[in-house]
Write a structure and sequence with these properties.
Distance between the termini: 31 Å
Number of strands: 4
Strand content: 5-15%
Largest sheet: 2 strands, parallel
Shape: flat
Helix content: 25-40%
Number of helices: 4
Radius of gyration: 14 Å
Length: about 100
């Protein structure tokens, strides 16, 4: 079983692209954090992990089940942002979820 851990840096926000590359390569476990908080001890300038809600949105839109409820992830990220008292980098928590695609 492969696992990936993707972080964003100030220069490039490629964490989600790296997670997608991991999926293509066979990864079944992807690291993320609500709102994108955290960092990486191996990448000193990494500003945070990929946001869980952004990852869930991407995977579900691609038809990959996550077992997570997107709206609950968004609510938890918004709560966490309030605890930190400053904006977090998560994108979907700002834009909100969109209706799930209709089955073909």
């Amino acid at each position: 079983m492969a696992r990936t851990s993707s972080v964003d840096t100030p220069e490039i926000t490629s964490g989600l692209a790296n997670a997608w590359a991991g999926i293509i390569a066979g990864a079944v476990t992807l690291d993320s954090s609500l709102g994108g908080v955290g960092g990486c001890p191996f990448a000193p300038r990494a500003t945070g992990n990929i946001p869980t809600e952004d990852l869930v949105y991407m995977l579900e839109r691609a038809g990959i089940a996550t077992g997570l409820d997107l709206e609950s992830c968004i609510e938890a990220a918004e709560w966490l942002e309030g605890q930190f008292e400053h904006p977090l980098p998560g994108m979907v928590m700002k834009a909100g979820g969109f209706p799930a695609p209709e089955p073909a």
